[in-house]
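To whoever is on call:

I kicked off a structure prediction for a single chain this morning and the downstream step that reads the tokens threw a length-mismatch warning. I double-checked the sequence; it's 207 residues and nothing unusual in it as far as I can see. Pasting both halves so you can look.
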Amino acid sequence: MKKRATCALLVVLGLVLAAGSAYGVKKKKKAPAPAAATVEAQGKAKAEPAVEGEPGAEPAEEAKAEPSEQDLEQAKTRYEEGKRHFEAGAFDQALAAFTEAYNLSNKPDLLFNLAVCSEKLGQFDKAIAFYERYVGRPWWVRTIVDAWTLGSVLERLGQLHDEQGELESAAVYYAQFVDLWSEADPEVQPRVEAAQTRLQEIVRERG
């Protein structure tokens, strides 16, 4: 079930590469702005752009601002390749394809795909970095896809930082998640309650 849900999110995010996409948006509270320290921690060093087709290429910190139509078509092709690899469990190949799609299109939503693939590969530091870049990158499509992804990203960032022993960062993301989904649908409230409980534990542990 979890794998199917993740695949569904990847499909939703990949659809933003095509113009005119529409999604159903659930009513949720406005998300709080990311902590300033989180945004600054996303790395200020500008990475070299990845070479198209290079399997080990890293996502550029600042991809091209105005991709051409040809770039976007190639990005959609790479995204479809990445989705097939992901569904087949070939997460390293999926990561490479999604990386190329991101570098070609500069669509911040693809950072979510990169984070999920990195988690599947056990690269948790990279997953955190990609999730935080996703949270920190403004883009108009975020007003659509955030209803699907932002809460889960904040929750997962809290969990990942928690697992890494980074309790202050974990507390920041748990708090943002709880605030965002405090009035969300009843079926997700157990997740909100779990995050609230863990947040209170961290506060007590930190004194």
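Update from on-call: the warning came from a stale cache, not from the record. Cleared it. Sanity check on the structure: Residues 131 and 153 are 7 Å apart (CA to CA).
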